[in-house]
Amino acid sequence: MTLAAFLAVALLHLMAAVSPGPAVLMAARTGVTEGMRTGAFLAMGIGLGGVIWAAAALFGLNLVFTAAPALLWAFKIAGAGYLIWMAFGMWRDAARPLDMGASGRPPRSGLSAFRLGILTQLANPKPAILFSAIFVGTVPPGTALWIHGALLAVVFANETLWNILVARIFSFERTRTGYVSLKTILDRAFGGLLALLGLKIAAT
Question: Which of 9, 73, 90, 108 is the most exposed place for a label (fewest CB within 10 A)?
């Protein structure tokens, strides 16, 4: 694999990572509701979820989906169901006041946020298809394992750093103050968008 091909993969994935989707939406909401620390753990979970899909694509998951389309359909329905379930929770609790606790620290643990990040990323099987499309033309058979490892490291870095940046932007005090004053409207907007993304995943 040439250096130019490696850099092309890195750039293509970065463009995919920054595009709006369930992961970016969750990073934004976590940043504004629970702060930078929790958002960073969430972003690392999103990064690991991206690595799992990328590794699956490198080792031929797309071939499995092609041979057994029902399996891809099942992944899509399960992922869409999870996202819609999260959207329902946001909508249901939209009118509930934001509780940061007496100490001012976010209530969600780092492990819980990390797990949420993984599940949010894995709920969308489309990255496996995207990675397969990118890797088919750029990662030739017989590519050294260390290059595979470097590609997975790039995926983790792109996903994690971008979503940390998103969480950071939305964690600023001015942003959070505005969110508190409009919490019901914004939570229902977040929930509605997440539900629409879930339906889009199931339908396409």
Answer: 73
